[in-house]
Each structure stands twice: as structure tokens, then as C-alpha cells.
Amino acid sequence: MQWASWSAFWDMGGYGLYVWGSYGALFFLILAETFFLVRGRKRTLQQIRRMKNWEQQ
Questions:
Q1: Three-state secondary structure along 24-39?
Q2: 19 near 12, Cβ under 8 Å?
Q3: What is the pLDDT of residues 1-21, one digit of tens each?
Q4: Torsion of the alpha carbons at 39, 41, 47 and 52, rounded to the nearest 10
């Protein structure tokens, strides 16, 4: 598909808000998922360390 200008590309034939909004929502959700995975991993590793320390006492 060819676009006459950059503004026509961003407008997407009147559906640009939905198209780019969907990309934005997807990007946000991927970032949120990554954040929660990293946070969960850190918490799990901390719990494992605490359990190991408790068992050694």
C-alpha cells in the first residue's frame, strides 16, 4: 500500500486512532508483563534465599 504523505500514513484512512492506539496498548501491556515477571522473579529468589538461610540455622 502506498501513502500520499506521512500524515496520510498516520491517519490510516480515518482509523489511525484505533490502529496506533492498539499498538500503544500492546506496547504498554508488554512492558507491564515484563515488569511483573522481573519483580516476581526477584521476590521468588529472595524467598528461596530466606528458606536456605533458615534451614542452615
A1: HHHHHHHHHHHHHHHH
A2: yes
A3: 677 899 998 999 899 999 999
A4: -150
Give exposure, 19-48, as e/b (b: 16+ Cβ within 10 Å). Answer: eeeeeeeeeeeeeeeeeeeeeeeeeeeeee
pLDDT digit string (tens) for 27-42?
999 999 999 999 999 9
C-alpha torsion angle, residues 12, 18, 19, 21 (rounded to 10)? 130
Put simply, whether the predicted model's pTM sits higher than 0.85 gets the answer: no
Query: For residue 10, what is its C-alpha cell?
Result: 498516520
